[in-house]
Amino acid sequence: MAQRTWSSTVVEHHRLREDLAVVRLIGDVVPFQPGQYVDVSVPQNSRLLRRLSPALPPSQDGKMEFHVKTVPGGWVSGKIVKDTQPGDTWQILDPRGDLSVDVNGPPVVMIAGGTGLAPMRSIILDLAQSPNPPLVYLFFGGRTLRDLYAADMLWLLAHQFPWLQPIPVVEDLTDAGPPDEWFERLGVDIGFGEDHLVEGTLAEVVASYGAFTEHQVLVCGSAAMVRSTRDRLIATGTPAEIIAFDPY
Ligand SMILES: Cc1cc2nc3c(=O)[nH]c(=O)nc-3n(C[C@H](O)[C@H](O)[C@H](O)COP(=O)(O)OP(=O)(O)OC[C@H]3O[C@@H](n4cnc5c(N)ncnc54)[C@H](O)[C@@H]3O)c2cc1C
Asked: Residue 176 has what pLDDT?
């Protein structure tokens, strides 16, 4: 059977870092579930499909948002980050993936490395539409403070949603990372103060809380991050069957 393709037009391209952009589109209503990913074809290299995770829940008016990070040497990601323009048309196919939350279920532990935050944000904004969402602990991390590209937005969301507790995790708090003209230009206050920041890898930090047994656990990020986090969670007593994960 022919695969259905939806079309969407870029309306905003925000470069947040040298290697990261947020892209907003409006177009066909794509029938995905919060937490799923889609295949995307972009005009900068239309023959190569790449998987991306919508960062908004499905909307009736066809709004979509993606968070894209450059993979060095990659054929597509760097072009999306650098060259995307309002008016570009993206083709979107084949929503799928198993990251989801039972709104009537136990508390949720989300663990997001880098743009692994995107599907978690889609789920969080969807939960916000229900009358009684479960508690959500969101561990989001990167190597340096600069990698927490959405910290300011999560700080604001946490004030809006009392059931959401974001925990920013940075591998090395003393490492400022390489100079980044986009980051300097934005001059963003990340919201979270020093007493909120936790140092370590996501795997180490999450495992230090002990076993999550009465929880829904979701992990998304690079393949290495997902593997090490799952291994540490299982080693500290979290049952494998309650961990949903999507490696990039
Ligand atoms: C389920 C899923 C959801 C995803 N969602 C997002 C998202 O929301 N935002 C986003 O920015 N990316 C996401 N990705 C990653 C994305 O699909 C691409 O793999 C990534 O953008 C690289 O594409 P590229 O064409 O630039 O690199 P390619 O040309 O495909 O690869 C170039 C080189 O980089 C290596 N490589 C490919 N991907 C990665 C990676 N992720 N980390 C390290 N090395 C890699 C390849 O092995 C190859 O050697 C997701 C991936 C999956 C599987």
From this structure: 80
